[in-house]
Structure formats: structure tokens, C-alpha cells
Amino acid sequence: MRTHKKATKKTKRIWMIATIVTLLGLGSLTYGLADRYLIKHVEVVVTDNAATSNSSSDAASTTTEVQATSDDWNYTSDDIQIKINQVQTGSGSDLITYFVADVTVNDASSLRSAFAENSFGTNIVENTSDIASSNNAIFAINGDYYGFRDDGVIIRNGTVYRDDPVRDALALLDDGTIQTYDETEISSSDLLADGVTNTLSFGPILIQDGKITSDFSNVKIDTNFGNRSIQNANPRTAIGMIAPNHYVFVVVDGRKEGYSRGMTLTELAEVMAGLGATEAYNLDGGGSSTMYFMGRVVNNPLGKNQERGVSDILYIKEE
């Protein structure tokens, strides 16, 4: 009897220890996931001039207050011309709605980038419209959501923030051109020496040297938790160059039956080619896809008039 009781106590002790170990393991895993995907990490970047660091707060998705209407989708000044058009193709379940912004600037410095809350790091997000408003942007689109991953080459406004080359990328240059390239084939120092002011690390490349680059049959940007292949029809954001200082931006709405199903990468590449882009690059899409103009959101993110917080934007601003 005593032997049986001792055995029972020992079994209970073993189960208790196993339970504690399991709970500690789950807690560690939960914290690890939260640390990677939820908790903000502001990274300090040391440049030749100074160390830069800022703090920020999370920005939840909020309902867009007003959408722009087509009667005010034009902007003209001595230095910048912007014209936005809404395009619809197909019908019924095959209906696609997208927005094309044709932008010409006199100086390449009018095309800039900005971080959410003016901070570089992971899990720091803010709505595209809020980042644009904070930077007095005339026009803006979401960027590459660099904060969702910890690799890639990230140069913004002439500063190297991250230097871990892994994928095909896009470079904006101070001569008004944009170039698609392989991050593993050129160093950040060489990019800066060539006049690169900003890089974007998402992809894939849609058009290079005037030609559609691939059939896009199996595209995966990274291996992060929650990542999925992106070649199917989805909301999209893309940037292209027609000529130096002449850009085209496309934002495709999607996942809303009767309004827009989204585009495949092949369809997006064909649209960019049809617009005359000689270089074109796919940026972060899905709920991130947002076009902002003159204080308002032009498109309808996910068919809900609801923006999703992003890490960064590209925007146009007067000098």
C-alpha cells in the first residue's frame, strides 16, 4: 500500500513538473512571437553625422473619413504634375478596380520616403494617410513594409538602415531614374556611390529593361510566420518609371466581391507595361495597399474604407 502511494505521489510530481515545463515553454514561445511581431523595436542607426533613434506607438486600423472624388484628382505646379484615374475592367466576380497615378516632377528629390512615426525598427506602424499628413505629402502610397522582416537592403533618404542582401529590389536614384536589381550583386556603398537615395525590398520585379520579367508562378517574399505565396489575385501596390522623373503608381483594390477581386502579379505586370513603364516593381499589398492624395485616401482598402498600419511610405512633396 505504501509503495502504491509513493508511486502515485511520484507520478503526480512528474506530471506537475511536466505541466510547469510545458507552460514555461508555451510562455516562452508566446513571448517570442509577440516580441517578433507585436512589440515595437526602435533601431538606432549610426551614420557619419549622428546616431538616430525615435520612439513610437502602435497605430490600429481606422476607418477612412473621406475618399477623394475624381473631380479633384489633379495637381499642377511649376515643379510637379499629378493626374489620377480610376480604372475598372471585367464584370461580376471578375471585376477589377484600380487607380493609376501619373506623376511628373522637375527634381527627383520630390519623390521621398518616410517611416511610421519617423522611426526605423520592427512592429512600428502607422496608417499611410497619417504618415503622409505628418510629412506634408501631396501624394503617397504604402511602401515595402520593411518592418515585417529583418533582412533586405534598406536605404532611405541617403542613409543605410539595414544591409542584409537577400532578394530582388528597387532603387530610386538622384537623377530621377529607378532601377530594379539583385541585392546580392551590388554593395550598399556602391549603391550610394551610384546616386541611390532610397531602396525598397519586397518584389518581385515586374518589368526590367522594358520587359516583363517572369511568369510569376511561385513567388514568396520571405519565410516569416504568417507569410504566404502572393501570386494569386490580391490588392496590389506598384511603382514604375516611364522616363527619368516621370513615374507611374498603381494601387489595386481587392477581396471585395462586386467591387474588385484584385490582380495577379502577371496582370499587374501587364498593366504596368501597358502604361509605358520601362522599370516596375511590386510593393507590399493586401490590406496595406493605399493611395493618398491631397489629404484623402483615394482607393478603398479591402473594400472596407479601412487602412492597415504600415512601416513606411513613398510620397511626393513640393520643395
From TrEMBL:
Domain Phosphodiester glycosidase: from-to ranges: 135-316
Pfam families: NAGPA (PF09992)
Cited PANTHER family: N-ACETYLGLUCOSAMINE-1-PHOSPHODIESTER ALPHA-N-ACETYLGLUCOSAMINIDASE
Official protein name in the record: Exopolysaccharide biosynthesis protein
